[in-house]
Amino acid sequence: MDKAQKAGIMIFSGVPAIMGGGIVFALFGHAVLPVVIYETLLFAGVFSILRK
Question: Transmembrane region positions (predicted)?
């Protein structure tokens, strides 16, 4: 996987991080811990894709 493709994956995953984090924050009654868990899982998924 070349650098441009890795950068594209990182940019493409930024939208779910921002939008999804806000949705999770609102659904769980403005609690931060579910957002941290969501962001950690998203980061782990992206990192596993980029390591290939």
Answer: 7-25, 31-50
